Each structure stands twice: as C-alpha cells, then as structure tokens.
Amino acid sequence: MGMSDTRTNLEKGKISSLLFKLSLPAIIAQIVNVLYNMVDRIFIGRLPSGDIAMAGVGIAFPIILIVSAFSALIGSGGAPLCSIKMGEKDNDGAEKIMSNSFSMLIIIGIILTVIFLIFKEPILWAFGASEATIGYAEDYLTIYLIGTVFVQIALGMNPFINTQGFAKMGMYTVMIGAAINIVLDPIFIFVFSMGVKGAALATIIAQMVSALWVLWFLFGKKSILKLKKNYLIPKFNIVISILGLGVSPFIMQLTESLVLIALNNSLQIYGGDLAVGSMTIMGSIMQIIYMPLMGLAQGAQPIIGYNYGAKNFERVRKAFKLFLVTAFIYTTILWLLLNIAPEFFVKIFSDEPELVDITAKNIKVFFFGIFMLGVQIACQRTFLSLGQAKISLFLALLRKVILLIPLIFIMPNFLEDKLLAVLVAEPIADILAAIITLICFIMYYKKLLKDDVLTENFSLGDS
User: Fold this and answer.
1) How would you class 258 by CB atoms within 10 Å of its CB: exposed for 0-12, middle for 13-18, buried for 19 or more?
2) d(C-alpha 11, C-alpha 277), whole Å
3) DSSP secondary structure string, 204-246?
4) Which of 87, 151, 129 has its CA nearest to residue 304?
5) How far apart are CA 57 and CA 52, in angstroms?
6) Which of 302, 318, 340, 368 is most open to solvent, judged by the fewest CB atoms within 10 Å of its CB?
7) What is the DSSP letter of 457?
8) CA distance 283 to 349
9) Could you read off the pLDDT of 86-140 as tens digits, one per residue?
10) Rounded distance between C-alpha atoms, residue 365 and residue 271, angstroms
11) In terms of C-beta density within 10 A (0-12 exposed, 13-18 middle, 19 or more buried), how is residue 422 classed?
12) 50-87 vs 134-146: helix crossing angle, rounded to 10
C-alpha cells in the first residue's frame, strides 16, 4: 500500500470496512501475545520445582510490566501525533516525531537496563521475594534485562507501523516474536536444562527478532514514514508532546502491578491462598477480555487521528460511534457468557474442584460491571487519538488509581463478608469509571469536533 492509497483509504474508505481491516490484525496480535505468555508459564510450571520457579518469575513480573510501560509511554504517545500530522499532510513533521520516539526508546532502554541490573536484588525483595524464590527471580530477570533495548524497540515502534495503516505488518511483529518464543522455550528450558534462564533467553531472542523486523520495515521502501538520521537527535518540544500524550497509557500499564498487589494482599488476608489462586485465574480472564479491546482501539486510532488532523470531523464521529458500539457489544457478550458458564472459563486454567468452585462464584461478582468496560475504553482511547493528553491521563488514573485501589481497602468496612467486599470493588470501579468517562466525553465532544474549530491542546512548534 503506497502513500496515496493509505491517504485515500483513511480519508474516503468505508469506516466499517476500515475498522475491520485495521482492527482484525491488531486483535489477532493481542490474542497471540496473551497466548504465548501463557505458554511461557506452562513450560516453567513443568520444571521439577515448577511452583517455586513460577513464583520466582511472578515476583519479577512487575519489573517486566514497568519495562513495557515505558515502551507504551513513547509508542502510544508518538503514534497518535503521527496520525494527526499525516492527516494534516505534514509527513515531514510525522517523521520527526517517529525518529525522536526511536531515539527516546533507546535512551530509556539503556537507562532501565543499568538501573534494574544494579538494584534488582533489593527491588525483588521489596516485591515479595523469599529465600526460596529469589534465585529464580534473579536468574530470569538478569537475562531478561539484557534485552531491554530490544523490548523497547519492538513494543514501542510497532504502533508507528499500525498508525500508517499497515495493520498486517504490525501483527507480524507480534506473531514472529511469539512463534520464536514458543519454539525456543522448550529447547532452552528442557533440552539445554537452562530452566527459567532458558525462558528469559527465549523471550529476549524473540524480542530482538521482532525489533529487527520493525526497523527493517521502518527503514524500508514500503513504509510511508521513514526513520531519518537527521531527525534522531531529540528536540525538547517534540519529546514533551510525546510524553504528554503517552503518560496516560504509561500510567495505565504501570498501575496494573499496583492493583495486583492491592488485590492479592487483601485477598490473602480475607480468603487465604485459595482466594489468591482464584484471583490469578480471574486476572488471566481479564487479560483475555482486555487485549482484543486494545486491538480494536489500535484499529480505530489511525482512522480517528488521521481524519481529525485532516479536519474531516464527520468521519471522526462515525469512527468513534462504531468503535463505541462495537466495544460495548463485545464486553456485553462476554459479560453474559461469564454469567452463564463461568466454569468453562475457569477450567481453561485449572481442574482443581475447590478452586473451580470458588472462582466460578467469584467471577459473577468480580466481572459484574465488565459490560461497561467497552464504553470506558472507547472514550478514553478516542481522547488519546485526538491528542487530548490531560483528559486522557485523568481517565487512565480514574478506574484503577482513583476508584479501584481505594475501594479494595474501603469496602471491607461496610460488608460482613470481607472477601465479597474486596471482589465487589471491581464492578463498582468499572461502572463508575465508565459513567464518568462517558459524561466527560459528552461534555468535550462538541467542543473537540466542531466543524469550524480545531481544538489544539498540544504544540509541536515548528516541527
């Protein structure tokens, strides 16, 4: 697809066909990403001390989340700005944003590698390591951190492929990495007897190949936007714009670990190990629900961002409405399925009768508000696509930090069943966050998308 073809499609193509074409590869990529993370855990769980090894890798997981959050800071901040610039027919400005983003990802990758390698042991103890798990956690993390720069490039630059309308190429980035990881995992873990070190090595090799794939495309002839050497030196005004917009998805990913820590601590107090095990399964189900939503958002972002930049607000409205309705229908269907057949979802992860029984009961409470998640995600991600950094940041903080974490500790004061009280915090946060987000969007909607006024809440100066 050439430059003119992409412009024609984003400007004039049928919105529903465009959303399907751009979203499907992104949704497949997100599902593959979830699946290969689960396969990773299955292999580690089959080691002689699999339960302890799994716990050790679990202790290191918040650091991995932090690393990926930084890639989202740059990728999810820079890609919507590129879309808007492309819509304004300013490809040179878009290339400056993309090249600056690339430089920032490398700088951040190097800084994170050095900091975590130096301080990994005290950090792991702080995250809950024990004498039994610290060795596994350190073994996994030490090797994983060597590939931090590759992780930053693979995860952080892939949105710049998707935002140009090359959704299939973006999907291949994830699928290539997933395939390599799945093939190498059993070889390194079992054949070479490397244990958790093998799992980490397979992951960073997979990320390295994904990173090289992304760079091959962005430096190549097919890419509309090119990484250019003379734009690689970061410019303050461009970097600030990227960080301002990227801080919302950055915080969304970063707070995942805070929510897990809060939930696990409270569930351990009120329900013990079985409740924590149940939460682990429900967390995995939440990931399965959430990832296709993110794929849908990735498909909508280039359409909304490009047409917003081109001041074609009628197409922005149509794309948003379709995004909102599709996301709401998707989450409502899953809400119904979780209520009708919770055991089916639980048995994907465990056949232990007691665990299946308690988790099936917990699912109906924990996921009671999940039908509203589609509304919250559609509005929040549309704000991001429109370059609205401040409101997007507030909405990113709203569900988890402002509502969910405090509710986890507040609700047990009001209900006799303390375990139920912790679980009910999730649907309350889901429903309240969706209602507040929708109200915010309605308030800003007309102001943002007036045909005669383009609201510009970010500035790229002369870039």
Assistant:
1) middle
2) 49
3) HHHHHHHHHHHHHHHHSSS-SS---GGG-SPPHHHHHHHHHHH
4) 87
5) 9
6) 340
7) -
8) 11
9) 999 999 999 999 999 999 999 999 999 999 999 999 988 887 777 878 898 899 9
10) 15
11) buried
12) 30
Count of C-beta atoms within a 10 Å radius of residue 220: 10
Q: Which residues contact 245 (CB under 8 A, 6 or more apart)?
A: 76, 77, 78, 80, 81, 384, 387, 389, 392, 458
Nearest to 101 by CA among 263, 251, 227: 227
Do residues 225 and 91 make contact, with C-beta atoms less than 8 angstroms apart?
yes
The 10 Å Cβ neighbour count of residue 183 is 12
pLDDT, one tens digit per residue, over 392-405 is 878 878 888 899 99
pLDDT digits (tens, 9 = 90+) for 226-285: 999 999 999 999 999 999 889 878 887 788 777 877 777 787 778 876 776 677 778 778
Contacts of 15 (CB under 8 A, 6+ apart): 303, 315, 318, 319, 322
Residues 6+ apart with CB under 8 A from 355: 274, 277, 278, 281, 346
Phi/psi of residue 92, nearest 5 degrees: -65, -45
Which element (helix H / strand E) includes 446? helix 418-448
Taking the model in full, what pTM does it have?
Answer: 0.74
Q: Which two tokens stand for residue 444?
A: 């800003």
What's the rounded Cα separation, in Å, for the pair 400 and 444? 22
Instruction: List all residues 6 or more positions away from 72 whose beta carbon is below 8 Å from its beta carbon.
Output: 155, 156, 246, 249, 250, 252, 253
Does the pLDDT of residue 449 top 70, yes or no?
no
Query: How far apart (Å, rounded) are the C-alpha atoms in residues 55 and 44?
Result: 10
**Other CB atoms within 10 A of residue 204 CB:** 19
Residue 354: both structure tokens together: 């007691």
Closest CA to 57 of 149, 156, 128, 155: 128
| Residue 272 buriedness (CB in 10 A; 0-12 / 13-18 / 19+) | exposed
Contact by Cβ (8 Å): 178, 33? yes
> Do 69 and 253 contact (CB within 8 A), yes or no?
yes
